[in-house]
Amino acid sequence: MILDQLQGRLDALQRDGLRRARRTLESPCGPAAQVDGARLLSFCSNDYLGLANEPALIDAACAGARAWGVGSGASHLVSGHLGPHAALEQRLAEFTGFARALLFSTGYLANLG
Q: 64 and 87, same structural domain?
């Protein structure tokens, strides 16, 4: 019964053109995106500063991955707070003039505080 109700709602969304479909980007993140062979202007990226494809940052990320791997292994409170995290927090604190800085795993979590 519940599945029939849900299917009815999904069908109504589809009929009204309101059902979303995931699109696959055929290009790196940037101000323009290639989707289904068409080059489109992108207004939905989280790459606010346009740094996702900056060669110096890519090189730094590769160097960090070679030195530290590609995952922390756990949350910060368990065992995932690595030396580079602590160093970045210290540098951010110095840069901002605050006694301490705190890293968050995502922008969403930072907004939650």
A: no
